[in-house]
Amino acid sequence: MATPAVAAPAAPAPAIRLQHVGKRYGSGPVILDDITLDIAPGEFVCLLGASGCGKSTLLNLIAGLDAVSTGSVEAPEAAFMFQESALMPWLTARRNVELALRLRGLAKAERGARALELLDIVSLADAADKRPHELSGGMRQRVALARALAQDRPVLLMDEPFAALDAITRDVLHEELERVWRATGRTIVFVTHNVREAARLGQRVILLSSRPGRIAGQWRTAGADHAVIEQQITAQLRKEISRNAA
C-alpha cells in the first residue's frame, strides 16, 4: 500500500516584504531602484554599502518614516535605534526606558520593574540610576537598545548604532546584541558600512550598489567562513565603488 504523501509545512509569511521599491525626492536623482526583498520572521539582516548608497533611506521606508516613490513595503510597526543614543539627559537610564514603556501604555506600577528587567537583558541593571553623562558611549547605546526593546515590537531597525564606538566596545556590543536577538526572537534589520560588522552579525548580508541603490549581492553566513565572506563582500563593494567613481 502506498504511503500517502505528506504536504510540506508552508513557509511563514515574511516579516518584511519589499516589492520593486524605488525612491527619489522631487526631480532629484534616483536614490533607490527596484529593491525586491523578503525578510523572514526572526531573521537578522545586515544592509551594507558605501556612504550615500541609500541604506538609511531604505530603513526609513521600512519604518514608515518616509513614503516610497514606486513599489510597496509591507512591514509591521518597528522600533528604531539610531547611531546616537538620543537619551533624555535629565533622566536616569531606568527613567529613559520607563518613558518608552509609558508611551506604550504600560501601567505606572509596572514600569519600574519592567525597565529594570530590560536593563538586565542588556547587562546594565547596576547602572539603572545613572544619568547619560555618567555612562560610557557603549553603555548609552545599551540603554538605547533596552528602550527600543521596551516598545515590544516584532521588528527592530538599527541605523549604524555602533559606528561611533571604538573597536573593542563595538565587539562587546556585537556579542550583547547577538545574545539579545537570540533571547527575544526579534526580526532585526541592521544598517552598516563596516564589512566585518555585517559578516559578524548578519544571518544574511545584503550589499547595495552606489546610487541608485540596488541589490548588488547577498550572502548567507550560517556555517560559512566569515573571513572568506568578508573577502567576497569587500571585493564586490570595491567593484561598486569603482563603478560609481568611473
UniProtKB/TrEMBL annotation:
<dbReference type="InterPro" id="IPR027417">
    <property type="entry name" value="P-loop_NTPase"/>
</dbReference>
<protein>
    <submittedName>
        <fullName>ABC transporter ATP-binding protein</fullName>
    </submittedName>
</protein>
<dbReference type="Pfam" id="PF00005">
    <property type="entry name" value="ABC_tran"/>
</dbReference>
<keyword id="KW-0547">Nucleotide-binding</keyword>
<dbReference type="InterPro" id="IPR017871">
    <property type="entry name" value="ABC_transporter-like_CS"/>
</dbReference>
<dbReference type="InterPro" id="IPR003439">
    <property type="entry name" value="ABC_transporter-like_ATP-bd"/>
</dbReference>
<keyword id="KW-0067">ATP-binding</keyword>
<dbReference type="InterPro" id="IPR050166">
    <property type="entry name" value="ABC_transporter_ATP-bind"/>
</dbReference>
<dbReference type="GO" id="GO:0005524">
    <property type="term" value="F:ATP binding"/>
</dbReference>
<dbReference type="InterPro" id="IPR003593">
    <property type="entry name" value="AAA+_ATPase"/>
</dbReference>
<feature type="domain" description="ABC transporter">
    <location>
        <begin position="16"/>
        <end position="235"/>
    </location>
</feature>
<keyword id="KW-0813">Transport</keyword>
